[in-house]
Design brief:
The chain is of the alpha/beta class and 395 residues long. 44% of the residues lie in helices and 11% in strands. An eight-stranded parallel β-sheet has the order 4-11-10-9-8-7-6-5. Helix 1 packs antiparallel against helix 18 (339-371) and helix 5 runs parallel beside helix 6 (119-125). The protein is globular and about 65 Å long. It starts with 11 loop residues before the first helix and ends in a 10-residue tail after the last strand.
Length: 395
């Protein structure tokens, strides 16, 4: 696999272009695509573009302070690497490489349940904050086992994703034969093999890594090894997370809980009532219910609803540091970035994630200086204009 040239990779779109060339179409489209018509996927980005800045000119900005705190811990800049499933298919380093890059950059990493690396190895790889994202795949016993492992390994928070009662219909996957490539018979694989054979570097690394990994953190009682990767769709249908589940999860986990997948004031208030230390305004990157609000458009409503009772994060559509700044102006404490770093992982493994973080950090600092603001903690809605339809109602 060719090395990454940082001097020629100046934005996340460059990393996306490299990733598209370096991994098979089935892998790239899993990372890049959304649900059904991908309306929400596109709207996440378009909504951020509709926000305009209101800079303070003729202001001397000295040192630009990008630090903030999330759940009581300081991070070097207001972006945390979001949970991204199947990362080991994008590059053998997968979650371990991403966590190491995040820690070296002084920020946090969230490990997905849908991981090909053991959570203990991921936590050991990072010097920074690490949270564990929980699905209830495999049942309650499997989840409780993962929670206990995460506690012992040193993960400091649990992220519960509530918007996946069933996997969204990601139409690119069946077109690309993803299921057939991962678990089908040799005959079923035949129509889809050319896309794999066209990427010998990726294929060699994939085979040397042992082929299709199991889900190392979903250990079902009575079964040997982690859950097979393609069991996830079926498992999600049997593992809907309810508010009642959050109550028993709290009994198993004494640390802070982050609830991810909030888009309405009602759900935000419910999350506060259930003791969430933070919530993430999220539509799963446009990968679940197509046609819902862009995450940034829902942010003001959620911020108003919680009224400072819990920390608010946001994920969805973040491709530039300016997007991060816009989210902070509308009340987010920090953002979660998924595709932005995953493109780097698929493009060049650890080095690609490092470059993605560098790009976002440089973007944030430059945007802050151009705004005339010296600290991310001073950002507020006076620095932006945004559609009046997003403003929360008096209710």
């Amino acid at each position: 696999m060719k090395k990454l040239s940082p001097s020629r990779v100046v934005n996340i779109a460059d990393l996306r272009s490299i990733a598209e060339k370096r991994v098979p179409k089935a892998v790239f489209d899993y990372l890049d695509g959304g649900a059904e018509g991908e309306v929400t996927l596109r709207e996440n980005c378009r909504a951020l573009e509709r926000i305009t800045f209101r800079p303070r000119h003729a202001v001397a900005v000295g040192d630009c302070d990008l630090r903030t705190t999330v759940l009581g811990g300081e991070i070097s800049f207001p972006a945390i690497l979001a949970p991204v499933g199947y990362s080991r298919l994008m590059h053998p380093g997968g979650e371990v490489a991403a966590a190491r890059a995040a820690g070296d950059a002084g920020t946090g990493y969230i490990l997905s349940t849908i991981s090909g690396h053991r959570l203990e190895n991921v936590k050991a790889a990072t010097k920074g904050t690490a949270w564990y994202q929980l699905y209830l795949v495999g049942g309650r016993e499997a989840a409780e086992g993962a929670i206990e492992r995460a506690r012992k390994a040193g993960f400091s928070a649990l992220v519960i994703t509530i918007d996946t009662p069933v996997a969204g219909m990601r139409e690119r996957d069946p077109r690309n034969g993803t299921a057939e490539l991962l678990t089908g018979s040799p005959f079923a694989k035949l129509p889809f093999l050319p896309q794999v054979l066209a990427h010998p570097g990726w294929l060699t690394a994939f085979l040397l890594d042992g082929g299709v990994p199991r889900l190392e953190n979903v250990l079902v009682p009575g079964e040997t090894g982690g859950m097979p990767m393609l069991d996830v769709g079926t498992a999600l249908r049997k593992s809907v997370v309810t508010w009642e589940d959050i109550r028993w999860i709290r009994q198993s986990w004494s640390g802070p809980i982050v609830i991810k997948g909030i888009l309405t004031a009602d759900d935000a208030r419910q999350a506060v009532d259930e003791g969430a230390a933070a919530i993430s305004v999220s539509n799963h990157g446009g990968r679940q219910l197509d046609g819902v609000s862009a995450a940034i458009a829902a942010l003001p409503e959620v911020v108003a609803a919680v009224n400072g009772k819990t920390e608010v994060l946001m994920d969805g559509g973040v491709r530039r540091g300016a997007d991060i700044v816009k989210a902070l102006c509308l009340g987010a404490r920090a953002v979660l970035c998924g595709r932005a770093y995953a493109y780097g992982l698929a493009a060049a493994g650890h080095a690609g994630v490092v470059r993605a973080i560098e790009i976002l950090r440089e973007d944030v600092e430059r945007t802050m200086r151009l705004l005339g603001c010296s600290s991310v903690r001073e950002l507020n809605s006076s620095y932006v204009r945004y559609p009046s339809a997003w403003m929360p109602s008096a209710d």
